[in-house]
Amino acid sequence: MEPTIHTVFESVTGTWQYIVADPRTKETAIIDTVLDYNKDMGVISTASADKLLDVVTDNDYTVSYILETHAHADHLTASRYLQKMLSQRQNERRPLICIGEHIAQVQETLGQIYDISESELYGAFDYTFSDGETFRLGNIQAQVVHLPGHTPDHIGYIIGSNIFTGDSIFNPDVGSARCDFPGGSATALYNSAGRLLSFPSHFRLYTGHDYPPKDRGVRGPEQSGAIPYTTVEQQSKENKHVKSGTQEDEFVKMRSERDSTLSEPKLLRPSMHVNLRGGRLPACSTKGFKLEQIPASIVGAE
């Protein structure tokens, strides 16, 4: 049985957000959400997350899970805001915020770098998945696959013949994600991509981001050419970094050289402060993360 999938592109950070539902029971998961943040002004807003709520409402969905593929370094998650709003709408049926079990490693390493206390990280997520673990989305069985490399905690979600890959593989003309964050590994990413390309050729790989090359063309004013998925077959034949036949040493050399030229993501520090906390905001502004305006609807999103 295949799920119904809604794709919602957030163009500022190039992030794909997904709403995945069992069409019979309407039980739903939301994957890799975005909380809007203006770094210069220190303003948090919820326009992107509210679009997700509109889709849920319009389709009469019941959201059981808010899923993260990893602790994102380039955008803030809207998980706690969505959990609060959905709990109110669903008669206190509270969606679980979930991530891979190796988030503990990332929290320990980056919590020290960004001076986040252990007490603020304890219990940050409602549940953490292990590799191969399954869960149900209505009548559909979903499975977790560990896909380290971009980050050590990275996982994907197999739902029907669809895999929500996060940043473990990008669209063929974009290639692959950087591996230079603490705990990242080009070798591990190569192996994770190989794991994805071993699935049946018709499986769809839904990516966490898209940064459309200028020559791709426009596919709608809102998406500006962004594509949510390609198939395993397409990736195996066309991925410019890691298609079938690409050798490990070739990929590791390319990725290492490329990563050495990349600058720090613009929202790295704010993203870490929120995402390591499981979507909670710090109590006040901190170094590199100005907080001047926060919507009342986010306050108390615990």
Automatic annotation (TrEMBL):
Domain Metallo-beta-lactamase: 14-209
Highest taxon above the source species: Eukaryota
Pfam families associated with the record: Lactamase_B
GO terms under biological process: glutathione metabolic process; hydrogen sulfide metabolic process
InterPro entries xref list: Metallo-B-lactamas, Mito_Persulfide_Diox, POD-like_MBL-fold, RibonucZ/Hydroxyglut_hydro
GO MF: metal ion binding; sulfur dioxygenase activity
UniProt keyword terms in alphabetical order: Metal-binding
PANTHER family for the chain: PERSULFIDE DIOXYGENASE ETHE1 (PTHR43084), PERSULFIDE DIOXYGENASE ETHE1, MITOCHONDRIAL (PTHR43084:SF1)
Protein name stated in the entry: Metallo-beta-lactamase domain-containing protein
